[in-house]
Amino acid sequence: MSFFTNINKMFKKISLYRLFSIVSFVMLITLSVNKAQALEEVDDFQPAKLWKDDNGVHINAHGGGVLNHEGKYYWFGEHKVAGKTGNKAHVGVHVYISENLTNWKDAGIALKVSDDAKSEITKGAIIERPKVLFNETTGKFVMWFHLELKGQGYKAARTGVAVADKPTGPYRFIKSVRPNAKHLPINITAQEKQAFELMQQEKEVPEKLKNNIKGYKSLTFLSRDFTGGQMARDMTLFKDKDGKAYQLYSSEENQTLHISLLNDDYLSHSGRFIRMYSGGQDEAPAIAYRAGQYHLLTSGLSGWKPNAAKQYIAKHILGPWNKLNNPTLGINPENGFGANKTFGGQSTHLLALQNKPGHFIAMFDLWRPDNAIDGRYIWLPVEFVDGVMRITWQDNWDLSIFE
Question: Is the whole model's pTM more than 0.85, yes or no?
Answer without folding.
Answer: yes
